[in-house]
UniProtKB/TrEMBL annotation:
This is Type IV secretion protein Rhs. It comes from Spirosoma pollinicola. Gene3D superfamilies: RHS repeat-associated core.
Length: 190
């Protein structure tokens, strides 16, 4: 797709898209267990190794815009966005990665933005990353509190708790007809 204008067209300024599949051991399979207070990237058996999506299980789409900005999106077999890489230009020339984590019911459970993603990669991915640093779930992990997003659902599939980076946890309460009747953020909690 090319924008209007002869000079724009002659400059090869077009949106370009290419498709492919991710290679083996290139996309980490993150998991979230908000009841158990953790994000992790190892098999549930705790084998001590990082778990990746298998080769050809992840579709890869590369988008290049008119200014040659590149983003790479990875989707799973269900079409859910798993990871987005944004390649920054000069002078930084770095990759900013955002990972999306889903629960066993295919609902979005967590979003791992670039700063938290880099933190997790630089630490041991074979151990659990705890969202709270204490057993009573009262002291939030400062790295997660400032950078992470998480979503928890009840047995009926309603969002009952969400965490927004730098804003903390918000609790949601519904009536019997699934209408939201109350929400309480960290400022409202005692």
């Amino acid at each position: 797709m090319i924008g209007a204008g002869v000079a724009w067209r002659l400059g090869d300024n077009a949106v370009k898209t290419s498709y492919g599949v991710a290679v083996a051991n290139s996309v980490i399979r993150f998991k979230a267990d908000l009841v158990a207070n953790k994000l992790y990237a190892h098999p549930a058996s705790g084998s001590g190794s990082v778990e990746y999506y298998r080769a050809n299980d992840i579709a890869r789409r590369v988008l290049t815009d008119e200014q040659y900005n590149v983003s790479v999106e990875y989707t799973d077999l269900q079409g859910r966005l798993i990871r987005r890489d944004v390649l920054t230009g000069a002078p930084l020339n770095q990759t900013l990665t955002t990972a999306y984590v889903y629960d066993s019911y295919e609902r979005l459970a967590a979003v791992i933005p670039p700063k938290l993603y880099d933190y997790l990669l630089s630490n041991n991915l074979t151990t659990d990353f705890l969202l709270f640093t204490d057993a009573g779930f009262t002291l939030p992990n400062p790295v997660f509190k400032e950078n992470g997003y998480a979503y928890q659902y009840d047995a009926r599939g309603r969002l009952i708790r969400k965490h927004v980076a730098s804003a903390g946890w918000t609790y949601l309460v519904y009536d019997k007809q699934d209408r939201l009747v109350m929400s309480q953020d960290e400022q409202d909690r005692p």
